[in-house]
Each structure stands twice: as structure tokens, then as C-alpha cells.
Amino acid sequence: ALSALKNAFEMDVSLVAFFVMGSFLIIQIIYFFIIRGNYLLDIKRSLVNRI
Predict the structure, then answer these.
(1) What is the pTM of this model?
(2) Which pLDDT does position 15 carry in this prediction?
(3) What CA dihedral angle connects 14, 19, 22 and 26, to 10 degrees?
(4) What span, in angstroms and rounded, lies between the C-alpha atoms of 7 and 10?
(5) What is the distance between the alpha carbons of residues 5 and 11, in angstroms, rounded to a whole number?
(6) Is 9 helix (H, G, I), strand (E, B) or coil?
(7) Which residues lie closer than 8 Å to 5 by C-beta, 6 or more apart?
(8) Tens digits of per-residue pLDDT, 1-51?
(9) Which chain regions cross the lipid bilayer (predicted)?
(10) Does residue 6 contact residue 12 with C-beta atoms inside 8 Å?
């Protein structure tokens, strides 16, 4: 399927695939840090309110 796509559009499909996977990885890392930050803030608030 990939070779047919490569021949149809006359471009390197693997380069585009790596670009898409790299973009997805970067988005996942950013999402991880946002969620982690919110989670740690929530834990901190619950510990402070407990005292």
C-alpha cells in the first residue's frame, strides 16, 4: 500500500510518516506536562486544605 501511494504521488511517504509521528509525539509530551502540572496543583491544594 505504501509503495502504491509513493508511486501515485511521486513523493517519499516515509518522510511524511515520520513528520506526522514526530508531531504526534510532541503534542503528547506537551499534553503530558499540562495534565501533570494540573494534577500536582490539585494534590498540593488538597494537602494544604487538609491542615
Answers:
(1) 0.68
(2) 84
(3) -170
(4) 5
(5) 9
(6) helix
(7) 13
(8) 667 777 777 777 788 889 999 999 999 999 999 999 999 999 999 999 886
(9) 15-35
(10) yes
